[in-house]
Amino acid sequence: MSVVDVRRQRSNDNCAQNRSHKELVSCVGWTTADELYSCSEDHQILKWNLLTRKFHLVSKIGRIEKSVEAHKGAVLAGRWNYDGTALITAGEDGQIKIWSKSGMLRSTLASQGSPVYSVAWGPDSDRILYTSGRQLVIKPLQPSSKVIQWKAHDGLVLKVDWNSVSDLILSGGEDCKYKVWDSFGRLLYSSSSHDYPITSLSWAPDGEVFSVGSFNTLRLCDKTGWSYALEKPNTGSVFSLAWSADGTQLAGACGNGHVIFAHVVEQHWEWKNFVITLTKRRTMQVRNVMNDAVDVLEFRDRVIKASLAYGHLVVTTSLQCYVYNSRNWNTPLIFDLKEGTVSLILQAEKHFLLVDGAGLYAFSYEGRLISSPKFPGMRADILNAQGVSLSNDTIAIRDKSDEKVILLFDALTGKALSDGKPLTHKLEVVEVALDQCGPSTERKIALIDKNRDLYLTSARHLGREPKICKIGSMVHCMAWNDGANILCGVQDNQLTVWYYPSAVFTDKDLLPKTLYIKDGR
After folding, report:
1. Are 429 and 385 contacting, i.e. CB atoms less than 8 angstroms apart?
2. Higher model confidence: residue 211 or residue 357?
3. Is the model's pLDDT at 111 over the cut of 70?
4. Do 44 and 95 share a domain, yes or no?
5. 402: exposed, middle or buried (C-beta count within 10 Å: 0-12, 13-18, 19+)?
6. Residues whose CB falls within 8 Å of the CB of residue 326, separated by 6 or more in sequence, listed in order
7. The sheet that has 283-288: what strands, in order across it?
């Protein structure tokens, strides 16, 4: 018994209204192996073209610049790398090919016996993630480098995505589940089984949330996999999802021929007795939980990023930055943004940091530009809250070109700290955090490395070799208190608080006596 592969095709007629018949189709006939005519009781004859092995390079005005015979059989997936210099395609023939932006074949990266349904570039465009039946494969572009492969789903893997900021991987399959992985193939989250296969998924650019599409289903999740919102649009299967560059809007390609648009709202920010909610794209509600007083903040353009801490709310739109003092919500300080979309806002007591595609900028709460740190090979577009930290006097940045290195800058001048030497750890660093209190000479930096070990060291070591001391293991995330140099973290299945982490520099045996541990389940 053979399996028949049934596909819904579209007519190649130029008229939008003639893409399919409106009445019973009574007759079909082939003219070539790839061309078919059909006639119907709607009094139309349509020509169908089954040639799908090409990809087309198209200009913004819609002109086809070049058509390339790419695969034997259908081209199932194609993705540009992050700087737009290379295109990868995957096909029904099981081949994965890399092309120049002019459509010239550079290499065939892989060839396997089964169709490749989805591909994604690694964060540095030096690795490719692709599907192989029920497995996922990460293949470096360097021929001698190690390939990582693992079983990901109990059915065919249909879609993958890889975020350049968080370095996390998404997969969705015919087993009706979506999953979150790290770049070593370790499972971080698996959803429960849905009613239908997962047909699309996509990370928001900043890696904080992602969207999932299925039959008549659109879901928004945070980066840990937990669902924020579920919509049931009448769309058929959602076959592709794409985020706008600022991460506020989402578009979906639907099985019923429609394109759906969605906007992220109802985001929350909390600080002390204030709760702020993004109620519409250009409107925020401020609620004081002490007296239930409510203020409404209106913006000229849609809100892209916001941060609430240290008595100030910082909001960026596509064109401007608004700075509110929590004592007066009526008169914000407003200044224009020079560059494009802000991807990250960090706050300290005396100033805040904005990150966009062009650089990093430290501002006072009066809107004055204080400094703009720069370093060789800087890629501001992939900086995130785990890789950058701000205090009143110091800015710490994990070096993406060598993740064992932490670059340290004076927040007030933007210059590298006095001795100019970066901080170098023995393993790759995944998260950094500066403490917030006390004089600059005693500034400490906590870091979590690839093994999930937590270390503490001095940010300003004044020419001396810095002492790096381990204070915890299996630490998943951490945060400093903003009023005292107390550190907390999720450690295995526990919440751990280090009341006085600097005790490790005096006597390691004292450190366990300064801990508060609570079961986190």
Report:
1. no
2. 211
3. yes
4. no
5. middle
6. 271, 274, 311, 312, 313
7. 268-271, 274-280, 283-288, 293-298
What are the E-state strand segments in 399-502?
A: 405-410, 423-424, 429-434, 444-449, 454-458, 469-472, 475-480, 487-491, 494-498
Same domain, 355 and 417: no
Q: How many CB atoms lie within 10 A of CB 418?
A: 12
Helix (H) or strand (E) holding 503: helix 503-506
Task: Write out the residue range of the structural domain in which residue 176 sits.
Answer: 56-263
Rounded to an integer, what distance in angstroms lies between the CA atom of residue 380 and that of residue 374?
10
pLDDT band at 463 (very low <50, low <70, confident <90, very high): low
Task: Supply the Cα-derived Rg of the chain in whole angstroms.
Answer: 26
Strand order, beta sheet including 86-91: 75-80, 86-91, 95-100, 105-111
**Rounded Cα gap, residues 461 and 424, in angstroms:** 13
Burial class (CB in 10 A: 0-12, 13-18, 19+), 268: exposed
Q: Which candidate, 240, 267, 266, places its Cα nearest to that of 255? A: 240
Q: What is the pLDDT of residues 369-428, one digit of tens each?
A: 999 999 888 888 788 899 999 999 999 999 988 889 999 999 999 999 866 678 899 999
Q: Is residue 377 part of a domain?
A: no
Mean pLDDT of 474-493: 93
Please provide residue 382's backbone torsions phi and psi, each rounded to the nearest 5 degrees: -110, 10
pLDDT in tens, 241-282: 999 888 888 999 998 888 999 988 889 999 999 999 999 999
pLDDT higher for 46 or 142? Answer: 142
> Is pLDDT above 50 for 9?
no
The conformation of residue 74, written as its DSSP 8-state character, comes to: -
- Residue 87, domain CATH: 2.130.10.10
